[in-house]
Amino acid sequence: MKVRQILIGLLVFLSWMPVQAQIVHDAEYYVLKMQNGERWQQEDSEITRRLQALRDKYGQPPNIVFLLWDDTAFGAVGFPALQKNFGYSTPNLNKMAAEGINFTRMYSEPSCTPTRAAVLTGRHPVRYGMGAVGMPHEFSGLRAEEVTIAEVLSRAGYATGFFGKGHLGDIEESYLHNQGFDEALFTPMNQITSLFNPQANAVNAVLGMFPEIYPPDPYRLDNPGLVPTGWVMNIEGEKGQPGREWCGTSNECFSKFDPEAERRTIAFIRKNAEANKPFFVAYWPNFLNFMAAFMPKPSVSGLMVADSFPAVDDFAGQLMAELQALGIAENTLFIAMADNGPMVHSPPAGWGMLPMLYRGGKGDFTEGGVRVPAFAWWPGMVQPGQVVGDIIHIADLYTTFARLAGASEYIPTDRVVDGLDQTALLLNGDTHSRRDYVFIYTGNQLGATVKGRYKRHWIGAGEVASSGMPEAYYDLYMDPREEYPQLVPLIYTQGQFNHMVARHRLFKKKYPDVPSGKGIPYTGLANARPETKAIGQRVRAVVEEMPFSIEEYLEFQIPGADKVGDWGH
């Protein structure tokens, strides 16, 4: 009887062959599809009807607006009652959550670069060498061979714009206007660059970066040595054109960046709405300026994160109002979320990086590092007032956006795409996810696996792990902080978790991981400064003195480098 059921399930799987069936997902998806495929097929028929009715009404597929900000714990946004206890408020984002979906199990990657890579590619960043947080000079970035959501949607006729923090590398192929976006203003690195200025060095917020403000060092032999001379803070560009450095590297330029990105986001929306052209726009603000001085304080708490929220929150409100004023709110999906948990490990003093309900934060594979606030707002399509308990991963947005745009046929089929189509969850609500699992990597190492309410840690599983009895199993309903492993009550899951990972790794063997893109930083800039051009000149001069080639030098994988920026280690 059991064999017969499995055969029937396989026949359902083989008989359901829409365009998406050609996309290669991870092994666990096929386990779920074998059991749920018939129901999903019925749901998809109704979803297709609803999306077609929307397209008939507006004459085009829906627009997509995606807001992504930094380092925020689940519960810190979207729950006004909690905010009362922490001395700040985000009324517009709270309104967005109340008028749409408040996701309670949105999983990200553990830190900035991996999360941003995951949503753009629909793939876990371990698969293409983007699992670590980059710093200048990185000599690497998102490789050209990845197919971003901007490239997928562009092929379906969408206008694509990116304005904000990229943090996807400092090489030319990683520039956002070279990754499918029609126009872009982005940062190759992250908010730490707000400290890369003489003023921050003067107060020791950064040490030794500007030797010119010190007395001459008679023992300094290497110039520039450890100083990343020629680094670039902001780049703008259009598809097919050279990039340009925007503003400069001062904190004043950092402060100007988010307002300029907001201005360009609104202009992009208006331009394409007036042209009746479907659009995808990503606004990913820097959000946090390490040198910001709030006077007077905008929040009761007076902490840096709380004081930084009003700018993001105000713009979220502006976006909703603009979409309604243009008459396109019903034909626009607006997603807003954080990229990972708060920086609870060695946080800057007075920042208020709140861990909230879950343990851990940025860099961790515990829930505090990867479970983030996330909301979906789509008047007329997404029912208001929803609190959704299903698991969804940020990579799912890639495949979901493609489905909404009628662009699934442009998703590559020669690699594993981890993102699953979650259109049913958006349009039908709670209990309609197509995912009950998550693989959580830290760098290139698998840290934990989630399956429903249960979680298995693969790192730090206790002293008895070598005996085959690891203290590694958690019930997230009973122990959301993952503080009390349930060895005996959950030991029955050991074999099942092991086989989940076996299937996952066999897929990785079939579709091997590849390294990130490599190259000389900051090439392809039409207005490159002399010190920026000198980066490549110095590399070539150094390598000429060495017994290896530039290619060997750039492609060498530094042991342990994937853990840089993973503060949880």
Seen as an oligomer or otherwise, the chain set is single chain
Number of strands: 17
Secondary-structure content class: alpha/beta
Over all CA atoms, what is the radius of gyration? 24 Å
What's the helix count? 16
What distance separates the N and C termini? 48 Å
In terms of DSSP E residues, the strand content is 5-15%
**Would you identify the regions where 5 or more consecutive residues have pLDDT less than 50?**
6-20, 564-569
Overall 3D shape: globular
Classify the helix fraction into a percent range: 25-40%
| Biggest sheet descriptor | 11 strands, mixed
Mean pLDDT: 93
Short description:
By secondary structure, the protein is of the alpha/beta class. Helices cover 33% and strands 14% of the residues.
